[in-house]
Write a structure and sequence with these properties.
Blueprint (H helix, E strand, L loop, with lengths): L9 H5 L2 H7 L4 H28 L4 H18 L7 E2 L5 H32 L3 H4 L4 H24 L11 H10 L6 H20 L5 H16 L6 H5 L16 H33 L5 H14 L9 E2 L1 H9 L6 H17 L8 H15 L2 H10 L1 H16 L2 H22 L2 E4 L30 E7 L4 H12 L7 E8 L5 H17 L3 E4 L3 H9 L7 E4 L2 H12 L11
Parallel strand pairs: 4-5, 5-6, 6-7
Antiparallel strand pairs: 1-2, 3-4
Helix pairs in contact: 3-4, 3-10, 3-14, 3-15, 3-16, 4-13, 4-15, 5-12, 5-13, 7-8, 7-16, 7-17, 7-18, 7-19, 9-10, 9-16, 12-13, 12-14, 17-18, 18-19, 19-20, 20-21
């Protein structure tokens, strides 16, 4: 199908990048590169998927199911050539809250509903609008999530004993952790800090090595060899199964559906932001372009399918996607192979996961949180402007102390209001017949001609006003005030909108209100430089011929207005 007058065809928008890559030609060398990249990403994803699942309040095997099923579908159907899907640290906060409130069954249902939301958003081509999330909002909620993730790992990192359970809100959590400090386990501290040290050192000295997996493997060997008294996946969860579970739908009732709807909306909002942000990062690294709406459709399908096999929220993951690119991936097959390698681990080596110390996985997530925090960007935005700082802090604090959805929505709302305020300040109104006349007396210093005055220069009778800038509801009040300073009853009006790129109904109503008395008196009214959309909107607000005349430019409009006042109206044919 070819392009339509309204843009690219449906086929062009929703063809998966896998199809595009295969059409371009795919050989044995490409497969070799993708297999190596897929293996590398799987090695990174293995400990991360389990750690994220545990931090989210579910068993570690569910993290693997998410990466296997969801990751495969994201790569096979997605609109990004290099995107790697799976469980993400950004979801830990909302997933843990959902599990605590609605249980695992509620989490699975909420994930499926969020998949439907994402699928619909993609089909309705809303992917473009997700990109409008302001940068301070993204930095704010990312930093907040990083803080919450780190706080959630302190218990396992220090081997603390919390008999009453760990509270979810941050402040009660900190209080509970402080009270539990006497129960600290030195062996857990050593393994956790040792894992962090291994990751940091290896990233600097051996950046191509799988530092997270090496840290977890070394910690597991040390804990097993020395018989350290620390919690492991085996002692807490009894290990992980060696197969994918049979496909099963979660329990669906109307009551439960309504109850998990807010959580599903949060998953969809965060998933769309996270996945498209990851796709943009991949584009910047490779020079390719992703299809945002196709990507949302793939994310939706992945989030519908993953819970059927016991997984939870799937999204594009920035760190794993970047690893995929750096490892030499040629296309989506690398992501599909990454899922296949994780499945092979599950089938062949699942019993070994029982020896992994939870302190080591906590160390892995602590480094993830540190890298997520975007400390430099946070500090830069605090210094950039007062508006950016307000948006950043509002998003950060609301995400930390209320919830993620509230933080994003309020941050976006404040950003929108600040944008509208800045745009409204850019609209200017100039008035007076001097806009075109060259032979005028110089104005005295400090004087500024802002409005038409019929007494000036021999009693001019034409009100000439030029509006420039995007004229919308936010600027209507200031423009109306400027127009009110124009003389009450000139004999003719000339309004120049040639420098107005956009005009909405509020603006059209403001112009119509200004011209109302002139229309009632039958005064000649000329509007210059109106584009076709602006002219159509003004017509709908009763500013249409023959009462109003439209001209191409201000000079022509002013000339014809003078002719009209000179009883020479027969020479001015309406161009509107």
């Amino acid at each position: 199908m070819g392009a339509t007058p309204d843009g690219p065809s449906f086929t062009a928008l929703f063809t998966p990048k896998l199809v595009t890559a295969l059409r371009e030609g795919y050989g044995l060398a490409d497969l070799r590169s993708d297999a190596l990249a897929g293996l590398t990403v799987a090695i990174v994803a293995l400990p991360l998927s389990m750690a994220i699942a545990i931090a989210s309040g579910v068993t570690p095997d569910r993290g693997l199911y998410t990466a296997i099923v969801g990751g495969f579908l994201v790569s096979a159907l997605g609109g990004s050539r290099f995107q790697i899907g799976g469980p993400a640290g950004a979801f830990i906060v909302v997933v843990a809250a959902t599990v605590a409130t609605h249980g695992v069954e509620g989490l699975l249902l909420a994930t499926m509903i969020s998949g439907v939301f994402l699928l619909v958003a993609g089909l309705f081509r809303l992917g473009t609008f997700i990109k409008f999330i302001p940068y301070p909002v993204t930095v704010g909620f990312t930093a907040a999530i990083a803080l919450i993730i780190f706080a959630s790992q302190v218990k396992d990192l220090l081997g603390l004993n919390l008999p009453g359970g760990e509270p979810s809100p941050l402040l009660p959590k900190i209080v509970a952790l402080a009270h539990a400090l006497p129960s600290i386990t030195p062996a857990a501290v050593a393994l956790g800090l040792g894992s962090i040290l291994v990751i940091v050192v290896m990233r600097r000295a051996l950046p191509r090595w799988p530092s997270m997996l090496m840290a977890v493997v070394l910690a597991s060997i040390v804990a097993w060899a020395l018989g350290l008294p620390v919690e492991t996946i085996g002692t807490r969860f009894g290990g992980i199964p060696s197969t994918l579970p049979s496909p099963t739908l979660p329990e669906i009732t109307w009551v439960k559906f309504v109850a998990v709807l807010p959580a599903a909306a949060s998953f969809a909002l965060l998933g769309s932001i996270e996945s498209l942000l990851s796709a943009v990062v991949a584009d910047s690294m490779t020079g390719r372009r992703h299809r945002s709406n196709c990507e949302l459709v793939a994310q939706g399908i992945a989030n519908i399918a993953a819970p059927i096999f016991g997984g939870f929220c799937v999204t594009g993951t920035i760190a794993r996607t970047a690893t995929n690119i750096r490892s030499g991936a040629r296309g989506p097959i690398a992501g599909m192979l990454h899922s296949a390698f994780l499945l092979l681990f599950l089938l062949a080596a699942a019993p070994l996961a029982a020896f992994i110390p939870l302190a080591a996985l906590a160390g892995v997530l602590a480094t993830v949180a540190w890298n997520m925090a975007e400390r430099h960007a946070f500090a830069t935005l605090l210094r950039a402007s007062r508006g950016d700082a307000v948006v950043l802090l509002a998003t950060f604090l609301l995400t930390v102390f209320v919830d993620l959805t509230t933080g994003i929505l309020v941050g976006f709302a404040i950003s929108a209001l600040l944008f509208l305020h800045r745009m409204s300040q850019s609209v200017e109104v100039e008035a007076g017949t001097s806009l075109l006349e060259e032979d005028q007396a110089d104005e005295a210093p400090g004087e500024e001609r802002t409005a038409y005055d019929p007494s000036e220069a021999g009693g001019r009778e034409i009100a000439v006003c030029r509006i420039s800038g995007a004229f919308f509801f936010g600027a209507a009040a200031s423009v109306a005030n400027a127009l009110d300073r124009v003389a009450a009853q000139p004999k003719a009006y000339v309004i120049d909108v040639s420098a107005v790129p956009f005009l909405d109904s509020t603006a059209a109503t403001t112009i119509a209100g200004f011209l109302k008395s002139g229309l009632q008196r039958g005064a000649p009214i000329f509007i210059a430089g109106a584009t076709s959309p602006i002219r159509k909107l003004l017509h709908s607000h009763e500013l249409a011929p023959p009462a109003v005349h439209y001209r191409q430019d201000l000079e022509t409009a002013l000339r014809d207005a003078r002719k009209a006042l000179g009883k020479d109206a027969t020479q001015t044919k309406d161009a509107g």
